[in-house]
What does this fold into?
Amino acid sequence: MYKKIISFTMVWLIIMAGVLLAQDFTWEDISRGNHDAQVVLVNVYDSRIIFVGVTGSVLKSDDAGESWRRVLVIRGGLNNINALGFDSSSLNVIYAATDHGLYRSKDLGEHWERVFRGKNSIENQCTAVLGTPYAIFVGTRAGLFISRDSGRSWHKENGKINNTSVFNIDSNFRLSKVIYLAAACGIFKSLDSGENWERIFVSYSQKDNQEKTVDIQEAAKEESLSGVHFVKADINNINCVYFSSTRGVYKSLDQGKTWSKLTEYGLLSRDVKMLCLLADSRVFSLTQTGVFLYQGERWIEVSFDLSVGKLNYLVLNIKGDIYVAGEKGIFKSSRGSFYNISGQVLVQEYLKYEPKIIDVQKAAIKYAEVNPEKISQWRKMAAKKALLPHINIGLDRNSTDLWHWEGGSTTKSDDDILRRGKESIDWDVSLSWDLGDLIWNDAQTSIDVRSKLMVELRDDILDQVTKLYFERLRLKSELDNLAIEDRNKRFDKQLKLEELTASLDSLTSGYYSEQLQLIMSKR
It folds into this structure.
């Protein structure tokens, strides 16, 4: 019991620490009237220099967002800025992947030149870029293109990747030359600077080396089939890599040979668009409606005060500040001060209107019929088994006796005929005891096996109930600290709260909601 109390206390402290951490993030609007931001890039060594891609243009700020000026204009029907990136060999070189090809600036965004243009409109739509000392990689909606002569010539990767849509490219260039690529059909890895590629995660199958003409409709259909969004390598660990998808976030500690899924606790939506890593390898994720930090085996939302509409892109500077590009502009996080309210006060305030966790757990155990007393009762009944005798009842029918009647008359019929007599029935009853069962019987072995399975099931149920219970309390705290005008986010969180309540009801046969109604009726 003491272990359970300590465990519940630790869970609650972690959750409340997450709530306070989330409150520690405040957001500043640095848009200056520039909306529909698609991508943002911050200089690693000078956070005052920021680039932002908006529809048809690349904007630059030299004063941390106090003012913006247009440094690149893209004209035409499709003019999105899909990705921005520095060259790893020089921070003066910056790339812009657009719907009209790949642009490059060698003087930190002051002057630009187009260095890649596809043969058709689908190849021309550049979606990702990675500049390294040995090659430039540009991903398009029709495959991957590589230049090893600073953009003067390009060749298409026609092997594993072929014509599939590319979403992003990343490399752990500080520790190795391993390159990771997220595409519509899965995650790819190259160990030799892009010469050869290996698919390390499959989102759907494709035929390799299949030459075909790709159009916009086919590319869009292919992207809709894919669950993969973004791949990110850990710069502190050569073997660690993450990817985000429509089904959550996955992590590998062996360069993609095996994958494990991170928990979804805390995420309003499992559809994670992209990931960023801090210098200490902590992970931030971006969904369409929020920014989340992975800490303590759960996700903590840090975007309570952020009202930016649809979120498009996330990036971190060297200090760990967060920059978000979204529908309503560009926002930057700044670390504020913790609220002075103590954790104990918060605990008592929220537990006041909730059924006790121990009662919810008991209801779940009762509903699942995994009570520990059930095994004890089985053992007692098995011990008394030897006192009951084995009863054997035998029943037999004897029909072999035949009788002959001699009438002595020669005039009556049926005289001197051999007739079958009546059947006789034999029966018996016997009782026996196996006194050895008083010491040990085979039922004990079966009970031991069932006991082990029941303990495992009970622990799983208790763990699930505990996580759902405290996750629901955390979500209530987040709702209380959410701005009233942020209706979309409030709706998502309220919907998540109802989902958690329904999950607790399903595990307790409606006990949780019944207790909530009783508590509310007494207020």
